[in-house]
Amino acid sequence: MFSLQTIFGSGKQFYLLLDEAASAAYDSAKALHVMMKATDRQPALDAFKLARQRERTASDKIGQALVESFITPIEREDIEALGSALYKIPKQIEKFADRYALATMHLEQIDFAPRAAMLEQAAGVVVEMVHELERLNIDSMTALNDKLRSIENEADRLMLELYREIYSGRLDSLQMFLLKEFFEILEKAIDRCREAGVVAYQIVLKNS
């Protein structure tokens, strides 16, 4: 039997669960940056598995709360869309980490840290945007959206530099393949952050 608080409550639990999902995504990005900065860059995958598990748990709880709650603070479709967007961030980062663990010996001379730093920054902005949802302040959300877009633009610029390196002729075919694959995974992870930010921004636009 559902309690009256569950059915008619303020729906604050949705904000808390979305905060938890965004935090898990950020922790995953932070773990990747730490790993890429380390001198040995030995892949320890536990942090990524833990972040993904936290994300799954938050996602499951959001789904359950949507079933049990009669009233939600924002539209159900928006909660589902944001939850889904946040879920994809650590999933993409874990994909990078898992593959990196298999190819470490071929990537010793490649510096992923600058791109990983940008991914951490992007995930950090997403945390701020999700935390701001409850206030529905269009000015602060617009500023954060512009910040996230700026990070994405800089990531696109760095990708052009990457292709310049690929076509330089200094790399063998395996290095070229791996460099392209791994940087594109990182780029897609930043895109996932951007997608989550867009959903959060549109929620505020709709409700402010």
SSE blueprint and pairings:
Blueprint: H1 4-8, H2 12-37, H3 46-68, H4 76-103, H5 113-132, H6 138-166, H7 173-207
Helix pairs in contact: 2-3, 2-4, 2-5, 3-4, 4-7, 5-6, 5-7, 6-7
Describe this structure in words.
- By secondary structure, this protein is mainly alpha-helical.
- Helices cover 80% and strands 0% of the residues.
- Helix 2 runs parallel beside helix 4 (76-103), helix 5 (113-132) packs antiparallel against helix 6 and helix 5 runs parallel beside helix 7.
- The longest helix is centred in the C-terminal third of the chain and has 35 residues, at 173-207.
Report the sheet-strand fraction: under 5%
Structural class: mainly alpha
Radius of gyration: 19 Å
Uncertain residue ranges: 1-9
Give me the oligomer status.
single chain
Report, as a whole number of angstroms, the end-to-end distance.
34 Å
